[in-house]
Design brief:
The chain is mainly β. Among the domains are: 176 residues, no CATH class; 91 residues, Beta Barrel (Thrombin, subunit H); 70 residues, Macroglobulin (MG2) domain (Immunoglobulin-like, Sandwich), CATH 2.60.40.1930. The protein is built from three helices and 74 strands. A five-stranded mixed β-sheet has the order 1-64-63-62-61. The chain has a four-stranded antiparallel β-sheet with strand order 2-67-66-65, with no helix packed on it. The protein is elongated and about 110 Å long. The two termini are 15 Å apart. It holds the Pfam family Por_Secre_tail.
Length: 919
């Protein structure tokens, strides 16, 4: 689904320029194995005038981004056409809510693009297809960023004979017990809203029916006393023609007092406009096994009767409808006689009961357009009844899938649709492989069948980005090949490890799988697996496998620029991995039951061992080269009551040792390009950043609170982030210069860009740009986690980020699905140009562009003479000249989805700039 759009536009737009604006990629690509799918589900079915079957469902294409899929099958169940529809929103989960087929065989799908897989939040959309599958319109109701509304407390829609739609919905920020604004719309054949009005109604529960372009409601107020009038009936035709009736009948009020109305009351309207409410109270109190039927005379605004079935009869409501004789028929299971009863109310307002002689209980009901109806029965049969309650035929499905919907084709054949469930891998605890199923059956056999399984994806959950010397991007990827089990003792899905190569235009060049005997491509024993890329773009990796070193062994592999993955030699368990022109260095720290930490020096090409160095109970910090010399730092802590020691080795020989107070470990550490070691210690209330170079010159800075992260600017200044959210700027010798801005963040990742520091946070998925005085001059939202392994600047100084998008579905942790994503954010100084950020953010022009984001056009809240549009490279791509006011529209429908800079100039020469998102 929207490989680029959904990867690129997951954001919350803000009008304040200094707030967290979306950092929009110049180019994006998604990746992942299309190995499984777990969200192909059937929802609705229709038979058109030519006896073709239409199936409406969902399919999962990119992680949890779920699309609506519509399929048309001919009489023999061959696919005539199939269309997948996605909404261009920053929401994620598109599901159909209702669907209709018109007399012209046009298909209408009304759905919700839900926010974060919620059942209740999102925006509405309507998609209309002609009989050839062409999309006539795909319309969203409200702003596509979801800012119009959050929760749907109610929605209903009906297709009118002329092809228009009557729609009502109640958007609200929360489930208040008071009145809510209900919005009423009429949408014509072209998808245009031709009528719109709003009415406030009670909403502590609501049920509705739309018939003949008239809206009928029963609502419940917030009163908590059953003796008080708490219910109202509404009949609404348009903004000016509406009536409401207070329902004061004590039988009605008592029965529905503890009952939810939605999904438990059915409304039917007869030919004279009378409304019948048939409800089943699912609560555990005395009404639990009874149902209620009430009749409202809408012309005279009277409740005619409210009848609750006798206490001695225990019923479960199945369905109700108005038959051709204009009588309200109720279908219910009689739990006393264990049979289906057909009930109605006669002219004396007396309950009349006819019992189905088959002795079967009903499990579901569907009314056909010709007045016949289906009952699903306790024996798994589908029973077709005439309007006069005579059983016509019985049908049996294959019983290989969950039945979802069924439609009558003719007097002898029907179509059934549903969803099948299977395991994605043999050891799985979960039936998460969902497929759409359909069968055409008569009363004797299955005539035709159909199955659909989408392309799906796997869970792309670990990534590393390497940029080679030719500015190509190598992605190391781990994917889980099915839903994971997070409980104890469960079976986890198999892993796939592979490396993908893209060029700088994000075009995939090749991908190669790592041998199955390799445990992991990216981490081992809680540590990242080190790698080396040489001057010829040969990638070397020391990868774990099964072996005799406490159950693990390691192999050295190389990956050529052409994607050839080759084994070199068996090697050693290694914490650090370094290479120069001739040698490879691997270090392994001692365990409590081992005598010594060891350095292994190998031949670069063959991987043969040349030298082994034992250093006792010292732990390796970093291996590096300066010129032709090879170095490594080590750390030694003997006991909690003795000092700590730092050692430097040069070409395998210890150069010096430096003693420090005991600090219970050092973290984080960093070694710069000159071999200078920086590290942090925390002992009691001493929080110290240390600096030690290869000449044994030492300096330090004592911080007022614990140190979270530090990084040098290109000019030598040091930026330090503290746990109390303060930041400080130090000079090259770690002397205090000034305090920076307070930055409220957690677990930051720092990296430099030109004269700026970039501070990324995974928890909030944001990126701050910080100048050399520690001031935050811009703050962006990002679409993935930015970290040391996932974000790099390429040879063109473009920010490249690899990550994933998606989420867990619903509340089940085992359904974890993530699609991989690769973004090129371009030159960051082209996001209006870094040099202009401070002046831009301090602008007092109050320029407002709206709507923002936009699909096609926008307005500006000022009068001006010139408006210019610039892309992210600073190139002017549009210009408008004239005498413009706040009512003028500016069309950008021809531009691609991206971020743009808008610059306006007034007659007196005042210049204002702002940003605009095109989606």
């Amino acid at each position: 689904m929207k490989k680029i759009i959904l990867c690129s536009f997951i954001f919350t737009i803000c009008c304040q320029l200094f707030s967290q604006e979306p950092l929009v990629p110049v180019k994006s690509e998604s990746f992942g194995l299309n190995h499984h799918t777990n969200r192909d589900m059937a929802f609705f079915s229709h038979v058109d005038g030519n006896k073709n079957l239409l199936i409406i469902g969902t399919t999962e294409k990119d992680s949890t981004f779920t699309d609506v899929i519509a399929t048309k099958l001919d009489k023999n169940f061959n696919v005539v056409w199939q269309k997948t529809v996605s909404q261009k929103t920053n929401l994620s989960y598109d599901i159909p809510v209702k669907s209709f087929i018109s007399s012209k065989n046009e298909l209408y799908v009304i759905g919700r693009s839900a926010l974060k897989q919620s059942y209740s939040t999102g925006i509405l959309f309507i998609t209309k297809f002609n009989e050839n599958g062409q999309i006539l319109y795909n319309k969203t109701i409200g702003n596509e960023d979801g800012s119009d509304y959050v929760d749907y407390t109610h929605m209903n829609v009906s297709l009118n004979p002329d092809g228009s739609l009557s729609l009502v919905y109640a958007p609200t920020d929360n489930m208040t017990l008071d009145g809510h604004d209900f919005r009423f719309l009429k949408i014509n054949n072209d998808g245009d809203i031709i009528s719109s009005f709003t009415k406030t109604m009670q909403n502590n529960g609501v049920v509705s029916k739309i018939q003949d372009q008239t809206f009928y409601f029963i609502t419940k107020s917030s009163a908590d006393d059953a003796t008080i009038n708490t219910f109202k009936f509404y009949k609404i035709q348009d903004q000016n023609i509406h009536t409401s009736i207070a329902i004061t009948d004590p039988i009605f009020a008592k029965y529905y007092y503890n009952s939810p109305l939605f999904n438990h009351i059915q409304l039917n309207i007869d030919s004279e406009g009378n409304c019948y409410a048939v409800g089943f109270n699912p609560s555990s109190h005395k009404s639990g096994d009874k149902f209620n039927v009430s009749k409202i005379d809408t012309k005279n605004e009277l409740l005619i009767y409210s009848i609750t079935t006798p206490a001695i009869e225990k019923y479960h409501l199945i369905g109700s409808f108005i038959n051709e004789q204009n009588k309200n028929i109720i279908l219910a299971n009689n739990l006393n006689s264990n049979a289906m009863d057909f009930l109605s109310i006669d002219g004396n307002n007396t309950l009349v009961v006819d019992t189905d002689p088959s002795g079967l209980l009903g499990t579901g009901f569907k009314l056909n357009t010709d007045g016949t109806f289906f009952l699903t029965s306790s024996n798994s049969n589908l029973r077709l009844f005439s309007n006069t309650l005579t059983e016509l035929k019985a049908f049996t499905t294959s019983d290989t899938f969950e039945l979802v919907d069924f439609s009558k084709i003719d007097a002898n054949t029907i179509a059934v649709i549903g969803t099948s469930y299977d395991k994605m891998f043999p050891e799985s605890q979960f039936l998460t492989q969902l497929n759409i199923k359909a069968e055409k059956i008569d009363d004797r056999q299955i005539l035709h069948d159909y199955s659909f399984s989408g392309i799906g994806t796997s869970r792309s959950f670990q990534h590393r980005l390497v940029i080679d010397n030719d500015n190509n991007y190598l992605l190391m990827v781990s994917e889980k090949m099915g839903p994971e089990y997070l409980g104890k003792g469960g079976t986890n899905p198999p892993l796939n490890e592979r490396i993908i190569k893209y060029d700088s235009n994000l075009k995939k060049i090749w991908e190669v799988e790592v041998p199955e005997n390799i445990f992991n491509l990216l981490s081992s024993r809680g540590k990242s697996i080190d790698y080396h890329l040489d001057e010829n773009n040969m990638l070397y990796l020391n990868l774990p496998r099964a072996g005799d070193y406490y159950g693990i062994g390691y192999d050295l592999y190389k990956l050529s620029p052409d994607g050839i993955f080759e084994f070199i030699n068996h090697t050693y368990a290694a914490k650090l991995f370094h290479a120069n022109q001739n040698l490879r260095f691997m270090s392994r720290d001692y365990f409590d039951y081992e005598d010594s930490s060891k350095m292994f020096i190998l031949n670069k090409e063959s991987g043969n061992l040349l030298q082994e160095i034992s250093i006792g109970h010292e732990k390796f910090l970093e291996i590096f080269s300066v010129g032709n010399d090879n170095y490594f730092y080590t750390y030694e802590a003997i006991t909690n009551n003795t000092p700590d020691f730092l050692h430097l080795y040069k070409n395998g020989v210890k150069v010096f040792t430096r003693e420090f107070s005991n600090n219970y470990g050092i973290y984080p550490i960093n070694v710069d390009e000159n071999g200078t070691l920086y590290w942090v210690t925390k002992y009691n209330h001493d929080y110290i950043l240390h600096k030690l170079d290869i000449k044994n010159i030492y300096s330090h800075y004592k911080a007022p609170s614990p140190i979270r992260a530090f990084k040098k600017f290109n000019n030598g200044r040091m930026y330090v982030s503290l746990e109390d959210n303060n930041t400080v700027i130090l000079d090259d010798n770690l002397n205090f210069i000034l305090n920076g801005d307070i930055v409220d963040t957690f677990n930051p990742y720092l990296f430099t860009y030109g004269d700026y520091m970039l501070l990324a946070t995974g928890y909030t998925k944001s990126l701050r740009i910080i100048n050399q005085n520690g001031a935050v001059i811009n703050h962006f939202k990002t679409q993935g986690l930015i970290g040391s392994e996932t974000a790099k600047f390429d040879k063109n100084e473009h920010l490249i980020v690899v990550g994933n998008f998606g989420d867990r579905i619903y509340t089940y942790n085992e359904y974890g699905w993530y699609r991989g994503s690769l973004h090129n954010y371009g030159l960051l100084n082209n996001i209006l140009s870094l040099e202009d950020f401070e002046n831009f953010n301090n602008s007092e022009s109050n320029l407002v562009i709206y709507p923002n984001p936009t699909h096609s056009s926008f307005k500006v809240n000022k009068e001006f003479n010139t408006l210019d549009v610039y892309d992210l490279t600073g190139k002017q791509i549009k210009s408008f000249k004239g005498n413009f006011t706040a009512t003028d529209h500016f069309d950008i429908s021809d531009l691609v989805q991206s971020m743009y800079v808008i610059k306006i100039r007034t007659q007196n020469g005042e210049v204002s700039t702002s940003k605009l998102i095109k989606i």
